[in-house]
From TrEMBL:
<dbReference type="GO" id="GO:0004386">
    <property type="term" value="F:helicase activity"/>
</dbReference>
<keyword id="KW-0378">Hydrolase</keyword>
<feature type="domain" description="Helicase-associated">
    <location>
        <begin position="188"/>
        <end position="251"/>
    </location>
</feature>
<keyword id="KW-0067">ATP-binding</keyword>
<dbReference type="InterPro" id="IPR005114">
    <property type="entry name" value="Helicase_assoc"/>
</dbReference>
<feature type="domain" description="Helicase-associated">
    <location>
        <begin position="45"/>
        <end position="103"/>
    </location>
</feature>
<feature type="domain" description="Helicase-associated">
    <location>
        <begin position="119"/>
        <end position="182"/>
    </location>
</feature>
<keyword id="KW-0547">Nucleotide-binding</keyword>
<protein>
    <submittedName>
        <fullName>Helicase</fullName>
    </submittedName>
</protein>
<keyword id="KW-0347">Helicase</keyword>
<dbReference type="Pfam" id="PF03457">
    <property type="entry name" value="HA"/>
</dbReference>
<feature type="domain" description="Helicase-associated">
    <location>
        <begin position="257"/>
        <end position="318"/>
    </location>
</feature>
Length: 383
């Protein structure tokens, strides 16, 4: 039986009778509730259809109706539809509409398919890595490897999985990669490889002074320079094990200081052998030492010689002034001549004879220093 609300005339009649007024009120309330329920149903249906349209748009973009729960209102709505379906409270027409666009009520099958897909994909990339190693001899695939960009990204992901601990759930994959010689930390691997190359260099050359542009292994030269820079800027402090390993090998942290000390030691030996530090610039025995000695004088003259080095050379009796060197050499020849004059009959050697001729020529030109002429006159030198 359909309920029909009272008209205004009915209301006036009811006002005349108290009992009829009560019936009117009850009838009016029932009618209002019926109309309200109908309005809410229309509103809910409209909202449902709006979400359904959003789901259709989602499928057009993603190819499925598997909306994540955290996808906002649509994700929550999709979860609600599955819950209503499970409890049998979803209206049949809505169920049919959802199924018409490929809605999946149970995701377990999808998860199984996705898991199998991931497994197949992992094995496919692993096989590609095996081929890479056969071609290149290692598993160090560049992240953006042009031959297979997916492989480079996959290799990087394996290292990340190892680092964040997700490999604990798949020890079989970890073991499979390690059997292939997979490098988990490429930077550590590179450091160790260069260190081993440095060991071989020392065996061949006797030191660790690899030139920066070492032609046989340019990478090694740059690596050695990088280690020195790391010590200087303090980044090597985080790896004391590396510093200790290099020092055990006799690594030279400052090649310039090492060279200076080596030349100083050579100068000490030269003095022990010859009695002085007057090394000719073009010394046939050690040209490098001759150049080095001259460089120390130049640096002292322009004020760039370190105070520590200057003091060390001074203590050795280093001759700083060329005039002093010439004077010492002249006095040495003069003493030889004086001895010959004191010992008649001694034959002058060719060097002393050449020296005496030179003094005569200088005297004739007027360029012989007066104090030198006076010394020669004292021993009766014949001009």
């Amino acid at each position: 039986m359909l309920l029909k609300p009272f008209s205004h005339s009915d209301q006036r009649e009811a006002n005349d009778f108290p009992i009829d007024r009560q019936i009117y009120s009850a009838w009016h309330l029932l009618t209002f509730r019926s109309l309200s329920t109908s309005g809410n149903q229309d509103k809910n249906h409209k909202k449902w259809m709006e979400r359904f349209q959003e789901l259709q748009e989602y499928k057009a973009i993603h190819g499925n109706c598997r909306v994540p729960t955290l996808f906002g209102c649509l994700g929550t709505w999709v979860k609600t539809q599955r819950g209503l379906h499970t409890t049998g409270n979803l209206m049949k027409d809505k169920q049919e509409m959802l199924e018409s666009i490929g809605f999946e009520w149970r995701l377990r099958k999808f998860v199984e398919l996705k898991t199998q897909h991931n497994e197949d994909m992992w094995n496919s990339q692993y096989d590609a890595l095996v081929k890479y190693k056969e071609m290149h001899g290692d598993t160090l695939v560049p992240r953006y490897y042009p031959g297979n960009k997916e492989l480079g990204i996959w290799v990087n992901n394996q290292r990340r999985n190892m680092k964040n601990g997700t490999f604990r759930a798949r020890p079989d994959r970890k073991a499979k990669l390690e059997d292939l010689g997979f490098v988990w930390d490429p930077q550590e691997h590179f450091w160790d490889a260069q260190y081993n190359a440095l060991v071989k260099y020392k065996e061949e050359h006797g030191d660790t002074l690899v030139p920066k542009d070492y032609p046989e292994n340019k990478e090694l030269g740059l690596w050695v320079t990088t280690q020195r820079a790391s010590l200087k800027n303090g980044t090597l402090r985080a790896r004391p094990d590396r510093k200790a390993k290099l020092e055990e090998l006799g690594f030279i942290w400052d090649p310039h200081e090492h060279f200076w000390e080596a030349q100083y030691d050579a100068l000490v030996k030269c003095k022990e052998k010859h009695g002085d530090t007057r090394v000719p610039r073009d010394d046939p025995e050690n040209k490098e030492l001759g150049f080095w000695v001259n460089e120390q004088r130049r640096q002292k003259k322009n004020g760039t010689l370190q105070a520590r080095r200057k003091a060390k050379l001074h203590d050795l009796g280093f001759v700083w002034d060329f005039d002093d060197i010439n004077e010492e050499a002249w006095l040495e020849s003069f003493e030889q001549l004086k001895w010959c004059y004191a010992n008649p009959g001694v034959v002058f050697d060719s060097a002393l004879r050449a020296w005496t001729i030179l003094q005569c020529r200088l005297h004739a030109k007027g360029s012989l220093a007066p104090h030198r002429k006076a010394l020669l006159d004292e021993i009766g030198f014949e001009w």
